[in-house]
Design a protein that fits this description.
The complex is a heterotrimer of chains A (289), B (431) and C (476). By secondary structure, chain A is an alpha/beta fold. Helices cover 39% and strands 23% of the residues of chain A. Chain A contains 13 helices and ten strands. The radius of gyration of chain A is 19 Å and the shape is globular. Chain B has two domains: 65-189, no CATH class; 210-427, MetI-like fold. Classes of the chains: A alpha/beta (289), B mainly alpha (431), C mainly alpha (476). At the B-C interface, helix 1, helix 8, helix 9, helix 10 and helix 11 of B face helix 2, helix 6, helix 8, helix 9 and helix 10 of C.
């Protein structure tokens, strides 16, 4: 069975050298250790998203457990990123977007009018496809969130937050001596970890990752994946990925999207070994996508 | 469960802290948004005030008053063989004073005051009538003529009785006369056609825009004939032919810098090169057009290049693959496709050139040019320089005419820009 | 006269085209021709038209100076003995008389008698030159025709040659831009050098007294110390500062609001309105400043002054009650209004060049819009905005009409916005629009000022464009 998991991504168009290089690390990351799932953190019910007249997402219902990595996979344009962005209401920033249905986080609807997206986003961090550090120093980048939310009452406290976040993001050792040089001067992989540090500096409960490794080389990718696995202990992580190998490596739960619909969801191991739906099988074996 | 920390229940100390800060943050947000609104509001207010002040100052110039008086052609005071020599204004004024039942003093001060209300045009009208038809002598004939600028200012409410009498140019008595003449129907308001059919004059009531409009048109014609072909040619060379080398780089840097050279420097160039060195005629549309052409050149080149760039390379490749030479490709396929954009850019830069003033002053378009020009090598006035000259004039009546001239200039520019917008809408092509 | 030759030339050129075409068809009979007949026709057209046109242009450019040389060379002794200025005036009148018009001035005894004869001579010279130029052009056309018609054969690569000409012509068009720059530099430098030979450059750049009007007599020049341009630089700087104080915040905030906050409808309304503000000619702003803003501000300050008189701020009140229309504030503020759309559209472009990913990153951290703008966008766009503001500064310095109409002529060294100051551009206009005598330092000073203005604005533009360019590349 395992051999099939490994073969499947090789057949996909977006396989290539990067995945081949990291495939061997799969067992060591230990994603398939059947870790007990945390309680449900986010529960989406009948979520649809419209861009103007165009519907991008159709009645998606999905439970996302805490302290777990949930991977959203599917061919491009399938709605997985759109769904990800509903969870911190980033779709609000695009004019003409409409979201229907309920997304409950710890029991409350985040689309409720009373919920402030600013507070929500302090709770739900996000990492983007392309590393987007601000054109400021490394320190300023990490301190950005705590500063705007007023999380540190003194310089010392802020230093502590910055150090702690950089350590958790596994970047501290590399940048400790140049905290005040520009964040844009780091390598791609370092930039992405800096952005992760920036996100966890406000101590969110959920971290959304939108194809965080697609712009990185294999070695940097491996580092990020390792980091994701570590972060799982503290946060609820939802990751959108193009690479099925990556989904297999880092996630415990997987949801397969196709044409704006959620096709199938389940334990990662099960999805990749024994999918219930024909379309899932076709996708993970590289028949389309 | 970690409900306590969620944004919904909001009871954890952390959430409390975030919420407490949120009010101040949103207050700042609102304030910032209002700064932006205020900035735009101020900018728009300036626009409204600018246009409003010009319209309110200028609309009165579009109507004028004509006074029609019966004049007894006194053979004793008008020489049949030389009617131009007669002092018609004095004659008319004296008769009018008598007609209004006013007793004049020995110095004839009332007649002088009446005379001050009449335009010198009256004299030319009367003299022309007598010269054409000498039999009018001894008869009483109605003559229509404009009023003087001061009388106009009173009738248009720009001089009022509220001002102290010694500080205004129209006395109470004169105001009474004007009121009476208006009531009797001798003074009639009408559309000021003279503004559009006459050239400049030293007397505001007789000054018109036609000379300046024609001067500007001649100048713009020279500009367009030079700047558009040369500018399009330069853009075509830079975009389609130029090798990537130093010369090309120098030319490109040059064009960008030329676009930002102050217009008055072009005036200095025109003065030194075209007038002092090449001895082209001063203040002529030829020199003005040349200077404006050099100024418009960078804009036209930049606009043409961007519309050439917008033509996709596939068009060029298709033509070249069919065996067309580069020149055939460019002139047969690329340039025609880019033409709407080129013409839009050209029209906009011509509209801009139409309003340019500073260089015109330096090449001599600052002196009084009566009449309407008809050649490109004689001194002319142009609309913007006429605005400058009239603004400097001391007579208040010129101020309303200046504002009217501005309105005419703006109307021309709006028409040109509207044409450019229409052209763009009609032919715009998205690749 | 030149029109007749021009028409003749057009006729020649059309005939050349037709002849070239026909000839190509006839000579290629049977054989396979390299180029199409029309291309042969164009080739003939170029060879007939180009030399003749060059000849006509050369003739009209040089005829004036040749004519002057000939007038001077053949002048009777009495006229030749006149001082140059009077002599040229005499020749000008002679030309008028020769053309059947009246002389502009009354000439005294010896010259009055010479005038008719000189008039006839002037007429003769003028028509000789006209005919000479025209005939030379026609000869050039014929020679070009003889050359080209012998060469039209089936194997002539007419298309390539025609295209070579076209390419050359297009290059010449591009070269006009460079020639314009060279023309500007030469015309400014030559007259400036003449100026600096009369007034030392150090005195011009560092002198603090500007009073060109007193330098009427030649012996006053230079030593009078009236050409110190520092007050003009100070006035220019003051007005620029006021203009930027108005334009920078309003333009910048409008740009931020338009690019980050406003809906599409607001944008569709406000942008064209700002474009109208940008399209209004500067002479209109000058009128607005001189007749609307100036008097309004004067009344405002005067009434404040009247209120303060007699109070604790009596001196200030006295000062304010005497403020005049032509204060630096008026010209500066109106210039600022003129620059608002310029600053706003440049900043708008620059803000739009900031990648969306930075905005997303900030919003995803839970930042509000204004926090994103203040802490991420503006710092990121800072170099670009600095470049845009520098371009605006360069515009403010070079702007002429507003200051000419609304600022004064008094060269004062002050930073008080309620005082009357004068600027470099105002002085250029003033010096060159009065009675001009060339070679007087008063007139030449304008070129010195023009050169200074050109150099300063050029440097500002180069620096600004470099900054903006580097900024754009950073986010490409």
């Amino acid at each position: 069975m395992k051999s099939r998991i490994l073969r499947a991504p090789e057949g996909t168009s977006n396989g290539g050298a990067s995945e081949a290089a990291t495939l061997t690390t799969v067992p060591t990351v230990g994603a398939h250790a059947s870790a007990p799932l945390g309680p449900i953190k986010i529960a989406a019910r009948d979520v649809s998203v419209f861009y103007g007249d165009k519907q991008a997402l159709f009645d998606v219902s999905l439970d996302i457990p805490d302290k777990t990595v949930t991977a959203l996979i599917g061919p491009s344009g399938c709605g997985k990123s759109t769904f990800l962005r509903t969870m911190n209401r980033m779709n609000d920033t695009i004019p003409g977007t409409r979201v229907t249905g309920r997304i409950e986080m710890d029991g409350g609807d985040i689309n409720d009018r009373k919920i402030d997206p600013v507070l929500l986003r302090a709770q739900v961090g996000m990492v983007f496809q392309k590393p987007n550090p601000f054109p400021k120093s490394i320190y300023e980048n990490v301190a950005y969130g705590p500063k705007i939310h007023g999380l540190a009452s003194s310089k010392g406290e802020m230093d502590e937050i910055v150090q702690k976040s950089l350590k958790r993001a596994g970047l501290w050792d590399e940048v400790a001596d140049r905290l005040h040089s520009p964040g844009t001067g780091l390598s791609g992989g370092q930039q992405q970890r800096l952005v992760i540090a920036r996100a966890i500096a406000v101590e969110p409960e959920v971290i959304l990752m939108d194809e965080p490794c697609s712009a990185l080389d294999p070695i940097a990718t491996a580092k990020i994946e390792e980091l994701i696995d570590e972060l799982r202990e503290r946060y609820c992580i939802v990751i959108v990925t193009h690479s099925m190998a990556q989904a297999a490596r880092v996630s415990q739960r997987t949801a397969f999207f196709h044409m704006g619909k959620l096709v199938e969801t389940g334990d990662t191991e099960e999805i990749f070994t024994n999918p219930r739906e024909r379309r899932t099988l076709d996708y993970i074996t590289g028949r389309f996508g | 469960m970690t409900d306590a920390a969620s944004p919904m229940t909001g009871v954890s100390p952390r959430t409390q802290r975030l919420k407490a800060r949120l009010r101040a943050r949103y207050a700042r947000e609102t304030r910032f948004r209002w700064y932006g609104r205020a900035a735009i509001g101020v900018a728009l207010a300036f626009l409204v005030i600018l246009l409003g002040s010009i319209i309110t100052q200028g609309y009165t110039a579009f109507y004028a008053h004509t006074v029609t008086l019966p004049v007894y052609m006194d053979p004793a005071r008008i020489d049949r063989s030389y009617p131009q020599g007669a002092n018609f204004e004095q004659i008319v004024a004296e008769q009018q004073v008598r007609r209004l039942g006013v007793q004049d003093d020995e110095q004839g001060s009332k007649a002088s005051a009446m005379k001050a209300l009449l335009s010198s045009e009256l004299k030319f009208q009367a003299a022309k009538m007598v010269a054409r038809q000498p039999s009018l002598l001894g008869q009483t004939v109605p003559i229509a003529a404009p009023l003087s600028d001061d009388a106009e200012m009173y009738l248009k409410g720009k001089i009022t009785r509220d001002q102290p009498e010694d500080q205004r140019r129209v006395s109470n008595a004169q105001m009474d006369w004007l009121d009476k003449m208006k009531a009797s129907g001798a003074i009639r308001a009408h559309f000021n056609a003279a503004l559009f059919t006459k050239g400049d004059s030293t007397q505001p009531e007789l000054a018109g825009l036609l000379g300046a409009v024609v001067g500007s048109a001649l100048m713009l014609m020279v500009t367009a004939l030079i700047a558009i072909p040369v500018g399009v040619g330069a853009a075509v060379w830079l975009e389609e032919y130029s090798p990537r080398n130093r010369i090309t780089a120098i030319i490109e840097v040059n064009i960008n810098n030329l676009a930002a050279v102050p217009s008055i420097v072009y005036g200095l160039l025109g003065l030194a090169l075209f007038i002092n060195f090449l001895h082209l005629p001063r203040a002529s549309p030829l020199v003005g057009g040349l200077v404006l052409a050099l100024m418009a050149l960078p804009t036209i080149i930049i606009a043409t290049r961007s519309s050439l760039k917008a033509v996709p390379p596939s068009i060029r490749e298709a033509a070249l693959a069919m065996g067309a030479s580069r020149t055939q490709t460019v002139f047969g396929h690329v340039l025609p496709l880019a033409m709407p954009g080129v013409m839009t850019g050209a029209i906009i830069s011509m509209a801009h050139a139409l309003g340019e003033t500073a260089p015109l002053l330096l090449i001599g378009m600052i002196s009084f040019v009566p009449g309407v020009p008809h050649a490109i090598d004689e001194p002319v006035g142009a609309l913007p320089s006429l605005i400058y000259i009239w603004e400097n004039a001391s007579e208040r009546a010129f101020h309303e005419r200046t504002a009217a001239a501005i309105l005419v200039l703006l109307a021309f520019m709006i028409v040109m820009n509207a044409a450019a917008v229409l052209l763009r809408r009609r032919f715009e092509r998205r690749w | 006269m030149i029109w007749i030759f021009l028409l003749l030339l057009i006729a020649f050129v059309v005939m050349a085209y037709v002849a070239g075409r026909t000839l190509a068809v006839r000579r290629s009979r049977g054989a396979k021709s390299h180029s199409r007949p029309g291309q042969h026709g164009l080739y003939a057209l170029i060879w007939v038209g180009a030399p003749a046109l060059a000849m006509l242009i050369a003739a009209s450019v040089f005829s004036t100076s040749i004519e002057q040389q000939m007038m001077r060379a053949g002048a009777p002794d009495s006229v030749a003995a006149l001082e140059p200025f009077r002599r040229e005036a005499f020749f000008a009148d002679a030309r008028l008389v020769g053309a059947g018009q009246e002389a502009r001035q009354i000439w005294p005894a010896p010259y009055a008698e010479e005038l008719p004869a000189e008039g006839r001579r002037a007429h003769r010279i003028a028509s000789t030159l006209n005919w000479g130029g025209g005939v030379a052009a026609l000869i050039a056309a014929v020679l070009g025709g003889l050359f080209v018609f012998t060469r039209i054969r089936p194997d002539l690569r007419a298309r390539n040659k025609v295209e070579g000409w076209i390419t050359g012509l297009l290059f010449a068009c591009s070269a006009v831009a460079v020639l314009t720059t060279l023309g500007i530099i030469f015309s400014l430098v030559i007259d400036s050098l003449r100026f600096f030979s009369m007034v030392p450059i150090t005195e011009f750049l560092f002198g603090t007294k500007w009073s060109p009007q007193i330098a009427i007599r030649a012996d006053q020049v230079g030593s009078s110390g009236a050409f110190g341009a520092v007050p003009l630089f100070a006035g220019t700087f003051l007005i620029m500062l006021i203009a930027m104080a108005v334009a920078a915040p309003i333009g910048l905030f409008s740009a931020v609001y338009l690019s980050e906050y406003s809906g599409r409808k607001t944008r569709a309304l406000v942008k064209p309105a700002l474009e109208v503000l940008a399209g209004v000619p500067t002479v209109v702003y000058g009128f607005f400043a001189a007749l609307t803003v100036g008097p309004a501000l004067r009344v405002f300050f005067n009434s404040i002054g009247d209120m303060l008189i007699g109070g604790p701020l009596n001196d200030l009140g006295l000062y304010l009650s005497l403020v005049q229309n032509q204060m630096a504030l008026v010209a500066g503020a109106v210039m600022g209004i003129m620059l608002i759309p310029f600053v706003s559209s440049l900043s708008d472009d620059i803000l739009n060049a900031v990648p969306q990913s930075l905005r997303d990153g900030s919003y995803a951290m839970g930042a509000t819009k204004s926090e994103t703008v203040k802490k991420v966008l503006l710092p990121a766009a800072l170099p670009g905005i600095a470049g845009a503001l520098l371009l605006a500064v360069s515009r403010a310095i070079g702007e002429t009409m507003i200051v000419t109409m609304a600022a004064g002529l008094a060269a004062k060294l002050t930073l008080n916005p309620l005082e009357t100051v004068t600027t470099v551009t105002v002085q250029i206009v003033t010096l060159l629009t009065g009675d001009q005598e060339f070679n007087s330092p008063k007139t030449l000073a304008a070129f010195g000022l023009g050169l200074t203005l050109f150099v300063v604005t050029l440097l500002l533009n180069i620096v600004a464009m470099r900054i903006v360019q580097a900024y754009r590349e950073q986010y490409d």
